[in-house]
Each structure stands twice: as C-alpha cells, then as structure tokens.
Amino acid sequence: MPTKHLLRIENLHHSFENEEVLKGISFSLDKGETKVIVGPSGTGKSTVLNNIIRLVPPTRGKIYLEDTEITSAKNINEIRQQIGFVFQDFGLFNHLTAKGNVMIGLTKVKKMDKNEAEELALFELDRVGLKDYANSYPSQLSGGQKQRVGIARALAMQPKLILFDEPTSALDPELTGEVLKVMRNLAEEGMTMLVVTHEMGFARSVADELIFMEGGNIVEQGDPEKLFTDPDHKRTKEFLFQLTNLYGEGEK
Amino acid sequence: MLDIFMEYYPLFLRGLGVTVFVTIISCFSGTVLGTFLALGKIYGNKFVSALVRLFISIIRGTPLLVQLFIIYYGLPAYGIRLTPIIAAVISFIINSGAYQAEYLRGSIQSISGSQLKAAQSIGMTKWQGIRHIILPQALRRVIPSWTNEFIYMIKYSSLAYVIGAKELMTEGKLIASRNYQFFNVYFIVALIYLVVIVIFVYLFNKIEKKVTIP
What is the C-alpha separation between A182 and A231, in angstroms, rounded? Predict the structure, then answer.
C-alpha cells in the first residue's frame, strides 16, 4: 500500500494475561508531526509506545515504519536504532557519564569511530543545554538534567522519530519546564514525535494532533484546540477539563 | 622465631609464591566461570538454567576436599593424570566459580531491569546490553563479596597440601618435620597468611574505591 506516513499503526491489540489493555488502536504519524496521547492511567498509552519498539511485543495488529512492517520484522535491533525512546524514569546507564550515555549507542551499536562519536555526543548534549555536564554521572544530575541526557541519547542515534513515555511524570514540577522546552524546540526543528504526557500546556500548544485514549480505545483524536474547546465526546471534555484543573494550563 | 624464618625464608617464600599464584588464578578464573554460570542461570533457557542450578548445588553441597580428591586421585582411573598444582587449581576454579556465580547472580539482579530495556531501546542486542550495561555495574557491586572470596581462597588453598602441592602450608610442614619446631614454624606460616591477606584486602579496598560510580 503506497503511503506517505512515517509511522502507521493498524488495529493494535495488546493483552496482559487475560486483560485486554489495547482493543484495536489505529493512527498514523507523518514526518515532522508531533502527536500527543493523553488519557487516564492504565489506559494503555505506554503500552502503545512499548509495542512500537517491541520492548513489549504486541499481541495483534500491524505497525509500519515507512514501508516496513515492524511488528514481525526480524531485525528489531536495527529498527530500534531508527526510533528513539525517552523513558519516564530516564533509563540512563548509571555507570557512564552523560557523554558516555550518549556515546555508547554510537560506538557499540552504530560502530562509529570514538572521536566522531564523542563529537556528536557533545553536539547533542549542547543541543539540550548540557554541554557543561558532559562528564557528570547520572547520580550527580537533577531529574530534569537526567531526562535531557535521555533525550540527547535518543537524538544522537539520529532516529526517524522519538517516542516519549511520560517524560516529565517523574520530575519535580519546577523541573518539567526545562524538559518541555527541549521537546518544544525539537518539534519546531521538525523532529517527528509521539508523546504520552499529562502536560496539557504542551499538548495544546505543540501537538499537531491530540489523541485521547480511554479503556484501550481511542475515544477521539484531532486538532488539540478543538478537543479542548469543543470535543465531540463528553468523556474527552470531562477528562481534559479535569487534567487542566489538576495540572493547570501549563506554559503555552 | 626470626632465626627460623631467616634460615628457611626461601622455602617459605617459594610456598607463598605458589599459594598466591594458585589463589589468583583460581579466583579470577572463578569469576569468569561464575559470570557465565550466573548469566546462564538468569538469562538462559529452561534447560541451561536447570543445568547451572544442578552444577551449583552439587559443587556447593559437597566438601572442597572431596572435590579435590576426586580430581587428583579419581581422574587417573579415566586416564587423566594431573600434577598436584594443576589438580588444585582446577578444583578451586570449579568451587570458587559456583560460589561466585551466586554472588554475581545477586549483583546482576540488583541492577534494575529498566537498564536492559534502555539498552535495547537504542538498538543493543540483549547480549550487548548485558555486556556493556549490566555487567560493568554488576561486577563493581560484587567487589566486596569478591574480596571475601579471595580471602577464603588464600586460606582454602592450604588444602592443596593434602595432595602434595608445594604451597605455603606444605613448605611449612616440610620445614617443621625437619627441625621439629612445630609451634614456631606454624606460627610463622600463620603470620605470613595474615600479612598477605591484610595487604590484599587493602589493595582491593583501594580498587573498589577507585571504580565506584559516583
């Protein structure tokens, strides 16, 4: 099927034990787009992201990266190199410096020359505002700094898109801003991003499309402004109203 | 006592040399063996994991001395004849490997599973993740237990004297049977063990500090 979509998800199902957490999710992502998935906890938002890079293999359904069907692809490690992943708990390698964290994928996975990898690592750290912390270990960094290293690590692999799994949920409120700012810049630079978050301000001002999920289904998706002000479904309105009250409108 | 040491120090030192050699080889090779056993137990399939479990319980469940005798006195029946030192080293490696496997298993499992997930997310294979992300952290954490193992091994290596490997204890016994100064000779032997162990512990503590992750 000819397609211009960068990422296409078709009828994705996922079951843990006997519980079906994803009941047929379909959406697509074009190059340069930022889509934000929101929804109550336990709705399967993170499972969608984990299914995409097969950290958790999907039960059923198809996922395409450009024209390649990746749910059953054998070379999953090559596919993962093309899709960045930013974890809620940062997932930094504790025995490596910030620079080491960014470099290791380049040297060990991409087999890049060490000097070249170091140069690229410093460039990416600079991009997230952490050039001065290149030699710090994760334990010496704040949560916001750790997450920015996590983003730099994903960026260094030069992925086609980056998945963000609640990137600010583990952060103190005053530290979320620095991470969101980096993400905002990436979106403006044309990075393709799929973001699971509760940050309504970010969703409203950065997302090209908002996807509201509940109970393993997509309830509604579309222009964020429309979903916030005039959604088709009552549940969308209730949920977004609740979250906006809870987290505020955030920085716009 | 000093006069005894001065008279026989070449023998004491030769014995010490063998003791330290046997210990270092056994302990380091034991670490390599233990690492593979631990990985087999944690990441291996059902068959591998069960095999490792069986091996560890046999080795830990039988006396080192018996293992030593089987290898030195038992194997010749199957045409395998080993020198005392080689037989000692092999049985120590097997024994230490089984114990170290358990230390390492604990250490590996104490590293959060999300580290491996993160490694795979940037395209590492499971093996690359284990090698470059999990093991460097797990091996650091195991150093205190490893130091303990090394101390045990220096002392347990004295068991090799029963098969005639010329380590420190054997040399001591030979000297004592020559001059009948049992108390003095064995006191010197004990003192040598003590000094050597204190030195190694100091060294390993230094190394541990040096490689600690901030």
Answer: 29
Q: Which of B115, B120, B137 sits opposite A80 (nearest CB)?
A: B120
Sequence letter at residue A155? L
Amino acid in the structure at residue B127: W
- Phi, psi values for residue A48, rounded to 5°: -55, -50
Q: What is the ipTM of this complex?
A: 0.90
A196: nearest Cα among A46, A91, A57, A89: A46
pLDDT at B205: 95
Give the pTM: 0.88
Please report residues of B whose CB lies closer than 8 A to that of A93: 115, 118-119, 133
SS3 label, residue A148: helix
3-state secondary structure B64-75: HHHHHHHHHHHH
Numbered residues of chain B with Cβ closer than 8 Å to any chain A Cβ: 114-115, 117-125, 128, 132-133, 136-137, 140, 213-214
Dist. CA B74–CA B76, nearest whole Å? 6
